[in-house]
Amino acid sequence: MQDEIKQRIEAAIDGAQVIVNVDGNRATIEVVANLFAGMSRVKKQQQVYACIEDLISGGALHAVTIKADVPE
Predict the structure, then answer these.
(1) Stated pTM of the model
(2) pLDDT tens-digit profile of 8-26?
(3) Is 24 helix (H, G, I), strand (E, B) or coil?
(4) Which of 15, 18, 28, 55 has the fewest C-beta atoms under 10 angstroms from its C-beta?
């Protein structure tokens, strides 16, 4: 599932650098992308959440922590 999540985010967010760690039904996702420039923290998280929404609603993922930022 880790690779699937990473691939989904990379496909949806151009130029994203993605790190995903999955432990059971919990995931920690870190995404760095230029797309996030000027976005609020909530908007950044919504962009990432949209890529995996079906995994959460379907029960494959229960808890997700998202850290989204712009490149330094």
Answers:
(1) 0.94
(2) 999 999 999 999 999 999 9
(3) coil
(4) 15
* DSSP 8-state secondary structure symbol assigned to residue 70: -
Residue type, 53: E
**Burial call 13-26: b when 16+ CB within 10 Å, e when fewer:** beebebebebeeee
Can you say whether residue 52 is alpha, beta or left, with left for phi > 0 and alpha for psi between -120 and 50 degrees?
alpha
- Packing angle, helices 2-12 and 41-57, rounded to 10: 130
Q: Which residues pair with 23 in a beta bridge?
A: 26
Its domain, for residue 25, covers 2-69
Report the domain count for the chain.
Answer: 1
Which residue type is seen at 8? R
Q: What is the CATH number of the domain that holds 47?
A: 3.30.300.90
